[in-house]
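for the writeup, i need someone to sanity check this before i put it in the appendix. the sequnce is what the collaborator sent (i think, or maybe the updated version? ugh). structure was predicted straight from it, no edits. if anything looks off just tell me and ill rerun, i have time this weekend
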Amino acid sequence: MMRMWTFFTAVILALTGGCSVHTKNQVPISVVVVTGGHGYEKEPFVRMFEEMESLHCHQVELKDDSELFEDISNWNYDVIVFYNMTQNISPKRRENFLTLLDRGVGVVALHHSLVSFRDWPEYKKIIGAKYYEKEMLEDGIVHPASTYRHDVQMAVTIADKTHPVTAGVVNFTILDETYKGYSVESDNHILLTTDEPTSQREIAWARQYRRARICGIQLGHGPDAYHHPAYRRLLYQAIQWTAGQ
């Protein structure tokens, strides 16, 4: 009987990327998933989060770019998952966001969120990277426009197999959208790399900003990523790690 239980547990782990089997004592994590400013396939994206146990996920589609940070007096989220590409964020909202980071609220920045808040230099330092939609002078450096390509079958290498975000994940291939030419902060701890020529080499990283744990994952354009077991596991474990678990 024990052998049969072990077999079925292994099958479930393989099919889910390890995201569906947890201990009963798992502490629930409150997550706000932020979208807006860029199209995406909503149903499979939302379902991906719904199928991750021990997460209480609230989906927020921004209407005026950054209203989530207008009033944080009743803030009750442990982690912010950015999947937006919105731009405007007022000085007040910037300060409120920084206050949350000082409280230790974690951040997971996915895919096109690397393009968000392009006129706020500090955002690049928070999430650890920046995609340039056009040539831009920043800190005395001229950054050429970054590039992208849809539907690329890319091989992904685990750069650090010991980090909690990548625990149990092995090298994999994924059909996704590549970005190339975005800046990467020098103090990022690199988690994933690729040798795909249309992509930046560094495609996932962990970092600390003030009291907040930050994880950036460039992957995640559409359903091919949302359904991928390795991507799901990385995302789930990124949320756990940034929440301090």
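The chain has one domain: 2-242. The two ends are 32 Å apart (CA to CA).
thx in advance!!
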